[in-house]
Amino acid sequence: MSAGTSRGSLESDESGAPAWHTVAPSEVSRELDVDPRRGLTTEEAGRRLDEHGPNELTEDAATPLWRRVLALLTEPMTVVLLIAAVVSAVVSRELETPIVILVVVVFNAVLNLVQEQRAESNLQALQDMTVTRARVRRDGQVREVDAEHLVPGDVVLLEAGDVVPADGRLLETAGMEVQESALTGESAPVPKNADAIDEADSALGDRDGMGFMSTEVTRGRGVMVVTATGMGTEIGRVAGMLGTAGQETTPLQRRIAQLAKLLSVVAGVVVLIVFVLGLLRGAALEDLFLTAVSLAVATIPEGLTAVVAFTLAMGASRLARRGAIIKSLSSVETLGSTAHIATDKTGTLTLNQMTARVLFAEQRVFEVSGEGYGTDGEIRVTGEEPAPDVRAALLAMALAADAEVHDGELVGDPTEGALVVLAAKAGLDVDAARRDWPRAAEVPFDSSRKYMATLHRWEAAASESATAEWARGLAPEDRSGLRMLVKGGPDVVFGRSAWVDTPDGPVPLDDAQRARLDDLNADIGARGLRVMAVAQRDFAAEEIDPDVAADPAELDGQVRELTLLALVGIVDPPRSEARDAITQARQAGIAVHMITGDHVGTASAIAADLGIEGESVTGAELEKTSDEQLRGSAAGYGVLARVSPEHKIRMVDALRADGSVVAMTGDGVNDAPALKEADIGIAMGITGTEVSKGAARMILTDDNFATIVAAVREGRGIYDNVVKFVRFQIATAWGFVIIFLTAGVIGLAGGAPFTALQVLWVNIIMDGPPAMALGLDRAEDDVMHRPPRPVGEPILTRARVLRIVLSAVVMAAGTLAVLALTPGEEPAPGVATEAGTLAFTTFVLFQVFNLLNVRGRDESVFSRHTFTNRILWLSLAAILLLQVAVVYVPFLQGLFDTTALSAGQWALAAVVASSVLWVEEVRKAVMRARS
Question: Where does this protein have compositionally biased stretches of type Basic and acidic residues (predicted)?
Fold first, then answer.
């Protein structure tokens, strides 16, 4: 409802919002009960603020700390560990085991909470897109107010450089253009006027009489009456859509949950078997419970959740240093399993800096180098003939523009910025030229005329400026006369031109010349470039009435019989690093889909330049495609042009339909729903809106698409590191299982080859530094040459299980052999013997060698990368020193039931333990030969 009035006859658009764009400005003012000349009174503005609320986007409340802790404590693996701690404390009446387990649980929780808080702090620091002040008419005066205090009916004054603070109906405009790429995806500024249009359901980009919150005025000025604020704006409507898009668990979380269930079942079966065997053997019940709990801890790799959290945290820290802020630890791994990246074009794949690429002047075609608003680059003529003089065309481009470019920074319209930079690349001092050729009058650009005309006097006859030499030969024959410069769409400028400039002077623009220009215009446009035409006309002093020159409407009648000077092809150039990133993504089996509001021709040309493969489709074509059809064809689309936020969500859903993991990148409000719907949304930190940052799981502080590929590599490496730890831990656990079951069946060492504390000791030293060191391992060389992992692939694949079983069998066999064959007193529970100590030490050394094994899938341990992880080698050294202490320090000997070993016994333990390395080296050699 409008403020204080009924909207009985006001149409609504397809979303149900009032179709203010179909209503004349005078009617809008009546509907909103405001005098546009005076604005609202302070009292009325306050009443409406109470009615409508502040002009801000609502945010979800932060998850309270207790709920975060509860979520961590209710994860399946953590629940199993807490149960084991309770059982251990109750049965054994000792605190060693429960303390170890609780330390791991607390470490995991603290690490996750700290990392999440750090990410949220970084996100808060990035949210700097909010409009803070607006100029309004209140009580008949122009005032500045906080944008959040705007209400429907407020009359807002806008000019170039302002950010539109709310949605509103334009009441009047003067050459006004607005950059709406954050809302519609269209990279070029949109001309605005106060005219009403008939179609209530017209696209946002076609509502020329409306201003939208968070868009930027690039040119001209306007007066707007606010029609919607906060969540009632178009941005608010998009933000509201986020509430319907759910967040699913990530692939790694699902794999870890599956593994926890599997290992819990295995642990239960093993503990039951050992317990029953002990009962049959007549063992003491208390000893049996202690052994059973120890085996449960050994069978469940209790360090898994902590190592996963540590590995993800390290990856997140590395990514933050490279320009990516992770809002959720598991998002790094999710990106690593991505099969599709649906990315916005403007500012993400491109520089968001319009650049001239092609110049046609003096009957010749020139190629222009350089990118963006920097003046590095040159204008090179094609062909063998000498380059003609194109200074007149370049001077016209600089003068018939309002944009200013200084040190690579643009103020004004991006297209004009491209023309100004083009002139500067040829050596023109634009500021000096504008002083030498001051503007006397102008016809502002609007969507109906599709051109801009400026009228200039030449005042540089005695100038010593940098443009003085350029001025010679370029000034009008009548030095007291005027020169009109025109730029606009080629069809419009062609229609008003009678001549075309050549190296021999102007010649008539006959049918042959027009046909050639039409073909050239089509060729440049086919390259995805926006084409602008530039022309001029000289007037003698007596040819033009000063009163006519001062009236744009009258001056418009003189825009005829022009001399065409040039055609310019302009493009928002792709980022050079984006090309390389897309190539790497393709090598990694990741499909890139460019989604944009641009026209399909422009988008397709940019996609081809970037190396994006696939068909091009428009939003209108998607409207005619059913969801089922889209699911079958979405993977083959490389370009989606002229699309709406709803189309983006449909595309993401279609790509996810087969179980593929989809990442969505973007910087605009229009990207936010799809960012939320995707498995991982990636927002731009510099150009991104507040809504898109809130919807994303990762934010790129450098807006660099290449950072995404680095994150993919990091994510894959992280998953590999998790798999390494799983292989390492389960091989140890299953080695324990085989040893205890075999000893129980044959009665070796009284069915208890290791004491409970020895079992825990192995788990403590294996869960600590070595496991953490695996989390720091570098990604393998081929990590970006593998296809994405199948979404349903468990962590324990058949191949990995076979490797684990092989290692566990070798370690168990070697340990049991040492235990059975070492001469001396037979090992027994609670009795320190050489055989028991040697078997214990051999099993520890087995872990050292197996740790080296798991670092590479099929890469030999003797490769050049073996010594790259310094932390791992320091960890191994620490393990050996600790084991030496356990064997020789009297106090520890009493705790662990050990006795001193000779040098020969240490050598024997090392030789036996190394067998697991040699067996695995043979397997790796076979796999490398097969591949």
Answer: 28-54
At the topology level, CATH places domain 20-59+131-229 in: 2.70.150
Conformational region of residue 102, where left means phi above 0, alpha means psi within -120 to 50, and beta covers everything else: alpha
Tell me what pLDDT residue 246 has: 44
What are the angstrom distances between the C-alpha of 647 and each of 638, 674, 909? 14, 9, 65
What is the C-alpha end-to-end distance of the chain, expressed in Å?
69
Q: Return the half-sphere exposure (C-beta side, CA atoms, 13 A cut-off) of residue 771.
A: 27
Which residue type sits at 519?
D
Instruction: Name beta bridge partners: 343.
Output: 594, 665
Enter the tokens of residue 107. Answer: 């470490």
The Cα 755–Cα 886 span in angstroms is 13
Structural domain boundaries in the chain: 20-59+131-229, 254-300+723-930, 339-350+575-703, 355-571
Q: What is the pLDDT of residue 808?
A: 95
Q: Which helix (H) or strand (E) holds 890?
A: helix 890-896
Distance between CA 423 and CA 400 in Å, rounded?
A: 12
pTM to 2 decimal places:
0.69
CB contact at 8 A, 34 and 225: yes
Query: What is the per-residue pLDDT for 356?
Result: 94
pLDDT attached to residue 32: 93
**Domain 355-571 top-level CATH class:** alpha beta
Active-site choice (162, 167, 344, 653): 344
Superfamily of segment(s) 254-300+723-930: Calcium-transporting ATPase, transmembrane domain (1.20.1110.10)
- Beta carbons of 467 and 452 less than 8 angstroms apart: no
Count CB-CB contacts under 10 A for residue 379: 20
Q: Which of 370, 527, 371 is nearest to 379 (CA)?
A: 370
pLDDT at 654: 96
Q: Is 365 helix (H, G, I), strand (E, B) or coil?
A: strand
DSSP of 645-671: HHHHHHHHHHHHTTT--EEEEE-SGGG
Fold of 339-350+575-703: Rossmann fold (3.40.50)
CA angle centred on 212, ends 210 and 218, rounded to 5°: 90
State CA 715 to chain mean position distance. Answer: 14
Give the pair of three-digit tokens for residue 147: 């944008």
Task: Pick out the chain residues at pLDDT < 50.
Answer: 1-8, 115, 119, 122-131, 244-248, 462, 472
Q: Do 371 and 351 contact (CB within 8 A), yes or no?
A: yes
Among this protein's residues, is 344 annotated catalytic? Answer: yes
Say how far apart CA 845 and CA 848 lie, in whole Å: 5
Residue recorded with tokens 């936010």: 672
